[in-house]
Specification:
Blueprint lengths: L5 E7 L12 E6 L5 H8 L18 E6 L3 E5 L10 H17 L3 E9 L6 H12 L6 E4 L6 H15 L6 E3 L8 H14 L14
Parallel strand pairs: 2-4, 2-5, 5-6, 6-7
Antiparallel strand pairs: 1-3, 3-4
Length: 208
């Protein structure tokens, strides 16, 4: 199928606000400014579809985006910004824990990390949280355009070691050069197929 429609549904903080129709969902977790919204925009060939915040750490909600009335992308609250309070961090933790453990139509949670840096303590905490919730520990390493091919391979090794992700899928991407854009779509197609959903995304023509 080719994507024909997309819609921002709601920013939610509790289950009563989640979309009721149980379409399959793929969620993205990561630090503030790791590039979750930019990745969603790249995948959907839109510049400003997914919401971004000018203030790192400000987004404290779960944002639901519906694609072709067939599935949803879910942008989880960013974490790791130093200026937010301890109370805010605790609030985000509760929001994430509720969604990860109680959302029955959630197929997979993808961890995004900045390829330029060694994963932080909070990256590791989030990654372990994802594994403990029963998901596969798939990693997307953003901002790969900032590095040479040799540096990319070196940093992927660092990320694997730091997260304990030796046998996990890890894909480097760039939202600027669109590196591995279609490898990510192939990954999502595999997730849908593994969960018995008749959803297969064709390659979308890039916007001019």
């Amino acid at each position: 199928m080719r994507i024909k429609s997309m819609e921002f549904l709601i920013s939610a903080v509790k289950p009563l606000q989640y979309p009721e129709e149980p379409l399959p969902e793929i969620a993205f977790a990561g630090r503030s400014n790791v590039g979750k919204s930019s990745m969603i925009n790249m995948l959907l060939n839109r510049r400003n579809f997914a919401r971004t915040s000018s203030t790192p750490g400000k987004t404290q909600t779960i944002n639901f985006y519906e694609i072709d009335n067939a599935f949803r992308f879910v942008d989880l609250p960013g974490y790791g910004y130093a200026r937010v309070s301890k109370t805010q961090h605790e609030s985000w933790g509760k929001i994430l824990n509720t969604y990860l453990n109680k959302r029955e139509n959630l197929l997979e949670v993808i961890q995004l990390v900045d390829i330029r840096h060694k994963p932080s303590a909070q990256d590791k905490e989030m990654y372990n949280w994802i594994l403990e919730a029963g998901y596969n520990g798939i990693i997307i390493a953003t901002k790969a355009d900032k590095m040479s091919k040799g540096q990319i391979q070196k940093q992927l090794g660092v990320i694997r070691k730091e997260l304990g992700a030796k046998d996990r899928i890890i894909i480097p991407i760039s939202t600027l050069s669109k590196l591995n854009k279609y490898e990510v779509w192939d990954l999502f197609n595999g997730i849908f197929e593994a969960n018995d959903y008749d959803i297969h995304l064709e390659r979308q023509n890039d916007s001019k």
